[in-house]
Amino acid sequence: MTRRVVVTGMAGITALGNDWATISSRMAAGETGIRRMHDWDGKYDLRTRLAAPVADFNLKGKFNRKQLRSMGRVAQMAVAATDNALEMAGLRNDTALLQGGRLGIAYGSSFGSTPPVIAFTRLMETGDSNGITATSYIQMMSHTAAVNIGVLYGISGRIIPTSTACTSGSMGIGYAYEAIKFGMQDVMIAGGAEELCPTMVAVFDTLFATSTCNDTPELTPRPYDARRDGLVIGEGAGTLILEEYTHAKARGATIYGEIIGFSSNSDGAHVTQPAADKMQIALGKSLETAGLQPGDIDVINGHGTATDHGDLAETTATRAVFNRAIPIHTLKGHFGHSLGACGAIEAWLGLEMMREGSFVATANLAQIDPQCADLDYIYSTPRKMTAEHLMSNNFAFGGINTSLIFRQV
Question: Are 231 and 210 within 8 A, CB to CB?
């Protein structure tokens, strides 16, 4: 016997703001979070000078120094998003539930906080360990977000860290969904986070996969566009509070949506080049777990990295599964590619848009690449539409594919 899983809280930290009202108004005004990083000039040997940073982020005053000392920036953004999501769910001060063992965490990032790496590198190169503190590794480790969330709130349920690059956030949500669906937990904190660092940018820069429209940040990245020239790295965090349906109803919680499908698989073929046929399988399995047919999905939030291999493989797989020009958009043009955070941020904002009945146009998409598959790309203007089912897809290095399906409740 399986159980229904609903969303009772959701929040995030993004380059366009930290609440839906702010983000939606800025997107409606044509803004994106992409910026030229002038402080990189002459400092880093990178082709790109573009990123989507979160401005003016600071947790001082909300949490004390002792609470923050084990958190690097990535964990701090995860905690900020989680605190707001718990508040929205009405669970922030429910100590009995938070610490009772039936509430857990599934949360991920590509990596931990990168500044402590410098101190460890110095140790390896010179033997000097003066820069290493008692919390350096805790800030740096890949499961730092999940652990810091757990310690801050005294959570004693299961912890599922997901460090799978660009699918970290979506996989966190998917595994949290399964933990509740199959009775392992009643409530889960789920999502992902990532902090902006030149090392992350360099990964893609060395592959010639970053945009170099350095003087026109407002025009890039351009997902699915014939004139795209690569991705832009961003940062942020997204958290969903998932809850077993009867548990949520019993306490009178507001329900913002339901997760009814999830699938994840791997290509097993290439570490950086995606495989459309395995993506296709992941999307099909997600429909299968949801008990839906392709015609039941109303709109897709695509991964949309604005890279040649990524956009072509994704759209080819999508067309193969749906065999029609299904509506699709992506948020990468607005927020850049926030790696481990993107799946969670996109799930949160996808639910917000589904509830409003309006889906934002893919930023900077003006001329659809004829090599991309024949889909109904949402561009130029927002799409007013009633959507009962939303599919949100993400794909990562290593050939890792995820697909989530949300239902309007």
Answer: yes
Rg (CA), the chain: 20
C-alpha span between 174 and 180 (Å, rounded): 10
Q: Which domain holds residue 270?
A: 1-409
Half-sphere exposure of 75 (CA within 13 A, CB side): 30
* Residue range 353-389, pLDDT digits in tens: 999 999 999 999 999 999 999 999 999 999 999 999 9
Q: What are phi and psi of 210, to 5 degrees?
A: -95, 150
- How many domains would you assign to the chain? 1
Tell how strand 257-266 and strand 5-13 pair up: antiparallel
- The pairing of strands 358-359 and 327-329 is unpaired
pLDDT in tens, 45-94: 999 999 999 999 999 889 999 999 999 999 999 999 999 999 999 999 99
For residue 313, the domain's CATH number is 3.40.47.10
Residues identified as active-site: 166, 303, 337
